[in-house]
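Model: Ready when you are.
Researcher: Fold this.
Model:
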Amino acid sequence: MEEMRSMVLPRVSVILPVYNVEGYLGECLDSILAQTLKAIEVICVDDGSTDGSSRILKDYAARDARVRVIRQANAGAGPARNTGLAAATGDYVAFADPDDWCRKDML
């Protein structure tokens, strides 16, 4: 039963505030999506980016159903994290910054 649940519902919600980080964003998302734990959701809060970050997020969301994108007017990293928290459905929450990369066993 637990195995079935983990295939449907995310165990961990990873919240990623994004603002004008197109040069780093792909590597960050690749490292999150490569986690050994697959039952995750990645909530990307686009905080009013004006560079190519929005396009990158859209591309990742189209390729991987675990990626959700929320766009909001620029309010800063704290409010973006709060927006992500409000949308999270996982049992646990993890935060990442868009210029980070994560070891595959982080979660």
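Researcher: Now this one.
Model:
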Amino acid sequence: FYRLPAFIDAHVHVESSHLTPARFGRLLAAQGTLTAICDPHEIVNVMGEAGLDFMLADAKRSPADLRFTLPSCVPATPFETSGAALSAADTARLFAVHPELIALGEMMNVPGVLADDPEVLGKIAAAKAAGKRIDGHFPGGRGEALSRYIAAGISSDHESLTADEALEKVAAGMTVFIREGSAAKNLADLLPAVNDSNWEHFCFCTDDISAHDLLNGGGILGAIRKAVRLGMDPERAVALGSVNAARHFGIRLAEDDYVVVRDLKDFEIVRVVKGGRTLVPDVKARAATSIENTVHLPALDAHVFSAPMPDAAGEIEVIGVNDGSLLTDRLVRRAGDTDDLTLLTVIERHGRNGNIASAWTAHTGLRCGAIASTVAHDHHNLIVLGNESHEIRLAAERLRMIGGGLCVVLDGAVAAEMPLPVAGLMSCGSASDVSACFADVLAAARRTGCTLTNPFATMSFLALPVIPELKLTDRGLFVFGQALQG
């Protein structure tokens, strides 16, 4: 048997598990992860400070130590409609009100940092004044732009896609979080960057991970297992999953918080100990109380969901979807080359302006029906993949009725659904309940012909304009921060 320090997830969005914080923490603890650095910018983009208060309160019932950052990007960009906004003044005030907040959440507004935007710099200054670290988010960050981004005070990044990119970020002084989540898995590509001279500057994180994946070998435990399987020394792999994150965030590791495993290959957990006491999973723990319905859609009765198609001499921009990746391709299609296209629609659901935008996607495989969700990073407007207006409308209206979640429509009827009544992001159920329900909607989604491994996870990032290349929000198409239509 081997006694290991309890694991730490260096960056995760609890909401992506579809579990409330208390439920999420119970699942983490069962796998030996007793600390997680959680960025609640999903629910805060929907509900503002009320969402933050909910997360902090519910996390107190978790056996794992859920430490929250203060979201830096609410909204994430000016190219989307969110349900709330936090200013630089709000940031300073909230750090004072909640001294337990461990850092400023990932700074996704890279253009704002590089352009010396006063609001962005004000948030960074507020974090520095409060003595907090500043998490980063700079996909493809290299060269002078990366140097300026780091010079602003940003100390970490979880968006590296290649070993060369990770090496440059570490050499420039960043801590690189190697992400192994549900929609994005970067461990195999980044592991070659870790060597004898720099390993202390790498951590493992999940970023976005489903309850289903956590129950089936994912999470930090899964990252450690995979790293060892790919050739990393077990002691080093454990360090990336524990002490390195503690060092980065200034967390003291308690000697009486630890994990006992049977071996250093499969890392089968024998016991998880917190505060000197063996943890026993509380499968009957009380569920969180739901909060108000946050799905406020415009009238859809007469709306026709469509997007322009190319005429004989024209062409259109198409979102090229890549299975298992947050990145999309910017494609151009002409007349006669549109057979594999599927309509993507984003409907503003915060009751702010009633915006509706649609665009074409390629490579989803969907042939019939509609797949809908209120999980669409980071604004979390309602997003639907489907070609027929009546099916898109039915899916959207069903999510309005149940307070948000996931939904699949087939043959003019709701085939499966997963209610997420907490801000349209989280369930009140247990991890096993959520996993089983997700399996049902995933099976129904496959009956549409959709070939994406996890269409809901992939679809949720098709509306995130801070990730390249071409994305759709309620305001139109954007190519990595630049409007194409609006």
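Researcher: Key takeaway?
Model: The chain has a mean pLDDT of 94.
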